[in-house]
Amino acid sequence: MAASPLVIHLLVPGLFGFVRGVEEAGCLPTVPLLERLLARARYQRTGGTDLAATLFDLFGITTDKGKDLPTAALSRLGDGAKPDSEYWLHADPVFLKPDGDRLLLFDAAHLEMRMQDAKGLAALFNEHFAEDGCYLEASTPSRWYLRVPEAADMVTSPLFDVVGRNIDTFLPKGPAAGRWHALLNEVQMLFHAAQDNKRREEERLLPVNSLWLSGGGALPHITNKPFSRAMADDPLTQGFAKSGGIDCRPLPASAEAFGNESGELLVVYHHLQRSVVDSDPVGWQQGIEQFQSWLEPLLRALGQKRLDSLRLYACNGDSYCLDRGAWRRFWKRRRPLMSYLDKAVNNELRMS
Fold it and tell me: Is the dihedral of CA 197, 201, 204, 206 positive or negative?
């Protein structure tokens, strides 16, 4: 009896992420196997220029043009909350650092956040804004969610786009943006005097002096189930799986774990994203080389006919489909991984 087919959809945010100083620091990764995959695979354009948009595209969920993707409601679900019909925003704890006439943003990865601080600041916020109908929920030390009484008519920027940058060009835009700018100013004054922040500063920890709002919307209704199983550690993917009634397991430490799987698998390899956010060339080089090692068993399974096809999504609009026929295209010459970053470099320079 023939084995059941196995198709893996592998999302790798940060694969072609732009990291300043990679070449100058001598951090060019040595990844011949990954380069061979990219050269032999069949290239296709896909919807989505980041992890969130790629997931929404794969699950067939569309939103109105000029509106946020409702990532907060889905991530909150992935963080263990029960589904509801409320309007939620990410309200992530951040530190805003004055730099001349700019404010630079640093997220919770730089704050050494603790649950006691998160709960204390959330309680302070909820007491202060109770009459406005706003409720701040600290699901984890670093991921907070804000419930608001009505839809926020504004467009926001994801937190990862802003880390280490001047916040001015990323602030909410739209008819209701002024109201939310005012609320954030009030939050900054409230948190400035917070006892939890004073204690953090006494302990030589950075204070939480603001929130970053993004990804507003209600939980979407997922009817399309393109995958039989998901494997991921990030709350957004876990939220998609939970909302769609799809079993979701943690990302395995090695791709050897896929040996007994079958069906259409959604896999999110998230370990490269942080080094891109932090513009860490050494971390990105090491991460890419570790990813190649993690990936190797999948390519071996393809050659041994235990894997029918692998579709690699770079989460920048590019995907690479590798089946057994494509993997045998030995005449396709590989080129350096850095050549695939040209588009990312150009996009970054345009934003600078």
Answer: positive
DSSP state string for 137-170: EESSSS-EEEEESS----B---GGGTBTSBSGGG
Domain boundaries, the chain: 6-61+224-351, 71-218
- Secondary structure of 266-317 in HEC code, one letter for each residue: EEECCCCHHHHHCCCHHHHHHHHHHHHHHHHHHHHHHHCCCCCEEEEECCCC
pTM of the model: 0.92
The encoded tokens of residue 137 equal 């929920």
Tell me which CATH code domain 6-61+224-351 carries: 3.40.720.10
Of the candidates 96, 79, 49, 351, the one whose C-alpha atom is nearest the C-alpha of residue 212 is 96
pLDDT, tens digit, for every residue of 226-276?
999 999 999 999 999 999 999 999 999 988 888 778 899 999 999 999 999
Residues 6+ apart with CB under 8 A from 97: 103, 104, 105, 106
